[in-house]
Every structure is written in C-alpha cells, then in structure tokens.
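FORM 7B: Structural annotation worksheet

SECTION A. Query
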Amino acid sequence: MPVHIACQEGQTEVVFEMLQRHPYLLHLSGAGKNTLLHFVAMCPEDRSELLNMLLDLGADVQTKNTEGKRAIELAEEVENDEPDHPHLAILQERMGVEKAFQSKEMGGPLRRATAEKCYTAIEKEDERVLTKLLRGGMDVNGTMDEALREDDDIGLTPLLLAIRMLRGTMVSMLASNEWGNPWGLSISQPNVHGITPMHMLAIAAEEDTQDARGILHVLLEHNPEPHLVDRKGFTALHYACEKGNLHNVIALVEKAGGDLRMETEDEMTCLHLAALNQHGEVVSYIIDALRGTRGGNFTFVSSEQAARAIVRKSDNTGNTALHYAAKNDANAEWAKQIMGCGGSPAQVNKEGFTPVEIAQKARQALMMDMLGREAARMLDEETQEKSRKMLMLSYAVKDNDIDRLRQGLIEGGIAIGDPVDEVGDTLLHTAAAEG
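SECTION B. Predicted structure
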C-alpha cells in the first residue's frame, strides 16, 4: 500500500497527511500482519521522527504480527545489528519498559555488532557512539572476542581496550555509574592472561602523560587490589617498574598499597626489573622506600634490613640488581645506592659471575673500577670483622663461657673449624690449650 511505502521511505509529512484523511490506516495491517508501526520499527534507517508521530497518533504498541512480534521486538532485532539505533529506545520509553541489558550475567560476551561498534568508538574516541552503547545497556565488563583484531587477547573488555589505547575520556565514560548498568564496573576483571585494568595501564603507560595520569586516577577511585598477579606472576607494580613510569610506581606503592617485595615467577622483585631495564629513578625510589624515607608498608625489624634483603636478593638466574647494573657505565650513580644498602659486588650468580666480572665482560671501565674497589673494601672489612668475632669467641673459650660461645657461633655464622689466627689455630686448638 502507498502508506506503507511512504513509511519505509521515511516520508513523514506524506504519511501524516494520509492518516489525517484516513485514520483507519494507522491500525491497518499489511504483509505478515505488520502495521505501520511494525514497518517503521523494523526499518534499518533512522525513522525516529516518523516513529514518534505514529506513537503520538495512538498507534497500538501491543499489536502482534503473524510471528507474534510487537514493534518493540522488531526494533530490538534491528538494534542487535545496529547497537546505536534509536527505535528501540524510543519504544522502550513510550512503553515504560526498562531497557534490556545485553548480558544475562556480568562479563559475558558482547554481541558481534555491539563489540565491533564499541571497538571502533574507543579507537576513534567517538563519545557519541559510546554513549549510545552505554545507554543502550552494554555491559562494560563484557568481553569483545567477536571484534578482536590480530594482536588482541581473548577476554579483552571495553575498559581494557580503552586503557591499552590510553583513551582517557573513554575510560572515564566506561567507569561512570550514570548509565544504569546493573553490574557496575569490575576493576579486577582480567583477560585470558590475567591482565587486569591496573596491569594494562602499567604496561601501556611507558611515559607519564596526562591521559595516563587521568586513567590512573579513575582506577584508583575504584580501590583496585594491588596484589593481583597475571600468569607470569607480575603485579601491576612489577610492570610499572619494568616500564620505568615513576609516577605510576609511586602511586601504586603509596596510594594503592603495592608491595615492592613481591616476586614474579622468575623470582624477580621490582628492584630487579627496574635495574634490568636501567630505570635509575625507579631504582632510587625503591631504595628510598625500602629504607623508610618514602611511603611503604614493610614489616622488617629495621628499614636497613629491608633494603639489604632486597638488594642482595637473587632471581632465578642468581642475578641481583647489581649484576644488572654492572652492564653499563651509565648506571654508576644508582649502582652506588645499591651498594650503599648492602649490595655486594662479590656475590656470584648461577653462572659463577660477580657484578665485577660482568662489568669486565661488558668492557665497562667505570663500573669495573668502582665495583672492584668496593669488593676489595668489603672483603677487607669482612675479614677484619670475622677476625674480631673469632677473637671474641676465643676469649669465651678461655673463660669457659659456654653460653657466650654458643651465642657467638650462632649469630656470627662461624664454624668451629675456622682458623682463629694466621697460624691456623681453631677454637678447638684454643680449647685444648686451655684444658
């Protein structure tokens, strides 16, 4: 019928005039028992003006076609393919129907059309399209597997994508609670590799930019769990130290409660990762934090013990932070800080190399000289200290003070067979001589 054709073509004025002359056409059904409202609702083009006019004139929203579908069901089918299509929202509002959220459970897969629209909107920073998707009930925790690109990981959510692309405005929109999403934002939801939003930011934000700071602020407002690890055993703080973004490192420690002592599956601490990647400012911050001059929550007996334990900690290859620092003369300043906390240039890795020898292999003259002198000094001090302890133990033997002898052996880490003097006498010799 001409009126149906006019509806499909969006000729609002023509349809209005025809209905004024023939009001019965408003409820007349055509093919498949579809009324004018059905025809307009299922139209893929935007016919919002015409749809509102039919509703204003009293079109029956409850009439069903031969498939038992009302106009709102047909509009929903269109919306499945075109997530930002307006017809469904208009009918929902007119009928007083709550918008139908697209996921039955939090974090379920988004429909292909929704996922692709969302991906493109975030990529192009299209606030209009993203707003329509969010108002249409898109689950912000839904996975976008149907729209993944070649380098994407399974389990990518809109939030993870926006963070990876450092789209600050998009992150703020996704994190907002104004859309009425019944699930709310899951700040800890990971992808298939265990990467959470905070992990993703630490990985993506290699530099301290305004967008990165804005995203960090949004995430911190949702109180993220700082100790969640991915499949490599990395926390967000590990990644921040690896990337060298000092602002992120400080925020994760002092605001989120990140632990600088946590180890990855490769037994690497934050200090290892910062040193390996030659991020001197981060190394300095970590040492200051461990010493207690910066924020942090540590339970060592003393801050010096905290720093010493970390700088002497070896990873699964036996390397300490000083081993990694030794590879480049440019690291001399913060290598001094590591040694100032007890880092040893004489400590060997699993290949049997000390930091001094690594500097020698790398032909780093400055590091060779500095580490070599420190190793000699430490050896001299250790020798003197051990001699002092042995002498004190010999006094305990001579005084027949068993308790003092036992305590000295335990605390000093000294064996009974160690020589007391240059002649080679041991504590056993001393005891025998004293009877």
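SECTION C. Observations
The mean pLDDT is 85. Residues 26 and 59 are 6 Å apart (CA to CA).

SECTION D. Sign-off
Analyst initials: ____
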